[in-house]
Amino acid sequence: MKQYLPITLSDQTLIEPYLKNTGKTGAEYSFTTLYMWAGIFNSFYRVVPQDGQSLLLVRSRKDPDAPWHFLYPMGAESSVPAEIALKVLKEAAEDHPFVVGALSREEAIALQNTGAPHLEILETRDSFDYVYQASSLVTLKGKKLQPKRNHLNAFTKDFPDFKVVPITQDEIPACLKMNYQWCQMMGCMYEVDLRQEACAVHKAFRGFRELGLEGLMLLADRQVIAYTLGELFNKNTWLVHVEKAFPQYRGAYQLINREFVRYALEKYPEIEYINREDDSGDEGLRQAKLSYHPAFFIEKYKAVF
Q1: For 76-87, what is each residue's pLDDT tens digit?
Q2: 268/252 Cα distance (integer angstroms)
Q3: Which residue among 89, 172, 174, 210 is least packed, with the fewest CB closer than 10 Å?
Q4: pTM above 0.90, yes or no
C-alpha cells in the first residue's frame, strides 16, 4: 500500500489493531475519533513495511498551508523505537517540515534523545484529555461539586416527568434534529468550527452501529433536549465523544452527564474512568471541564521538525 487512503468505516478492522497495540488512552487513538474528524482534518492513512513488520501512518492537514501532522507510527505487533519512527516519518514527509502530535511524554523524550536536528518539543495543553473517576460523576459528592447537584436538582424539579432513553437507530433522526437546532441556536451560521463539528456528529450517527457507539437522549417538553454518545474505549475507560444540551434547560447537561456514566457503569462494571476528551483551547469549555474536577489529564506533546 503506497498511496495514502481516506479513513472510511470499512477500514476499522484494519486500523483498530494498530491503535489498540499502542496502549494509549488519548481520544486520538479511538477509531471513532479518527473517522468522525477525518473529513474536517483531511486525514489519511498508509501502511508501510519496516524491519519485518507493518507500520500504520496517519497524517492530516486541516490548513493546506500548514505542515503535515502525523501520529507517531504504530506497529501491529510491537512498539516502534524512536529511531525507526523518525526514519519512517522523514521519508513520509519527503524532507518537508512536519509535526508529530498526540505524543506521550515518553515518546516526546525518545524523539528528542535521537539527537535529530531542527526538532522542538512542545506541550499541547489544549489537547490534554480530561479524565474523571466514574464514581465521582455519578454521586457528585462533596462541596466542590455542590453547584452541579444544584443544577441537577433544579432540572428534576422543573421537569419531573423527564425521560432518559437509550439511543437506537430509530432515535437517530430525532437526535440529529436536536443537534441541528442546537447548532443554529449557538451560531452555526457564523462559526465554521460549529459547522464542522455538526458534520463530525453526522458521521458518528451514520456509523453508529458499525462503530459500536452507545448513547442516551434526554426528553422533556415533549422533545429531545439533550443527547450524548460514547464507547467503551479500553478495559476500564468510557470515552465520551459528544454531549449536547439546549442551554435554556438548566441542569440538562449535568443530568445527561450523570445518567450516561450511570448507564455505562451498569453495563460495564469494570469501568473506573470517564475520558471526556480535550477542550480544544476553548476557555468556556475548559472551565466547564475543570469544574468537574478531573482525576488526571492525559498529557500530550508535539514534536515540530
Answers
A1: 888 999 999 999
A2: 24
A3: 210
A4: yes
